[in-house]
Amino acid sequence: MQKGIIELEEMEFYAYHGCFKEEQVVGNRFIVNIAIKVDVEKPSKTDNIQDALNYVTVYELTKKEIQINSHLVEHLTERILTAIHEEFDYVDWVRVKVSKMNPPMGGQMKAVSITMER
């Protein structure tokens, strides 16, 4: 068995997550990074997409969850994590990091992020 980590890096979305009314109206940019540990032995030998984890599906699951508004980034991150595990029950481990860019903190800040894994 050959394990590998597939990473989808810096997927960018515009969404309306936040506790403040303004965030739910104006929206914000979100950056999502996902790492998924899977057995890559078969696809590395067959070169067949049917044998591999389809990361287009991972992107689409993420996009779907991003479009459902949440007050907390923790809630959004948990939903993405759960959606991936439900779609790909054979994965060993998933890590999801969601970053809210330029959060309304009353000062200059690049991002606030949460990382969850299971």
Explain how this protein is built.
This protein is of the alpha+beta class. It has a single domain, classed as GTP Cyclohydrolase I, domain 2 (2-Layer Sandwich), CATH 3.30.1130.10. 33% of the residues lie in helices and 35% in strands. The protein has 4 helices and 4 strands. It has a 4-stranded antiparallel sheet. α3 runs antiparallel to α4. The longest helix has 15 residues. InterPro entries: Dihydroneopterin_aldolase, FolB_dom, GTP-CH-I_C/QueF. This is 7,8-dihydroneopterin aldolase.
Main traits of this protein?
118 residues; alpha+beta; GTP Cyclohydrolase I, domain 2; 33% helix; elongated; dihydroneopterin aldolase activity; lyase; 7,8-dihydroneopterin aldolase; folate biosynthesis; GTP-CH-I_C/QueF
How would you sum up this structure in a few lines?
By secondary structure, this protein is of the alpha+beta class. Helices cover 33% and strands 35% of the residues.
List the helices and strands and how they pair.
Layout: E1 3-15, H1 21-26, E2 28-39, H2 41-46, H3 55-66, H4 73-87, E3 93-101, E4 111-117
Antiparallel strand pairs: 1-2, 2-3, 3-4
The proportion of residues forming helix, as a percent range, comes to: 25-40%
Distinct helical segment count: 4
**The CATH homologous superfamily:** GTP cyclohydrolase I, C-terminal domain/NADPH-dependent 7-cyano-7-deazaguanine reductase, N-terminal domain
Per CATH, the architecture is 2-Layer Sandwich
Q: What is the fold named in CATH at topology level?
A: GTP Cyclohydrolase I, domain 2
CATH hierarchy, class:
Alpha Beta
| Biggest sheet features | 4 strands, antiparallel
- Distance from N terminus to C terminus (CA atoms, Å) equals 21 Å
Biggest sheet strand order reads: 1-2-3-4
**Which H/E pattern describes the elements?**
EHEHHHEE
Secondary structural class: alpha+beta
Radius of gyration: 16 Å
Strand content: 25-35%
Low-confidence stretches: none
GO cellular component, one term: cytoplasm
Pathway: Cofactor biosynthesis; tetrahydrofolate biosynthesis; 2-amino-4-hydroxy-6-hydroxymethyl-7,8-dihydropteridine diphosphate from 7,8-dihydroneopterin triphosphate: step 3/4
Keywords: Folate biosynthesis, Lyase
Catalytic activity: 7,8-dihydroneopterin = 6-hydroxymethyl-7,8-dihydropterin + glycolaldehyde
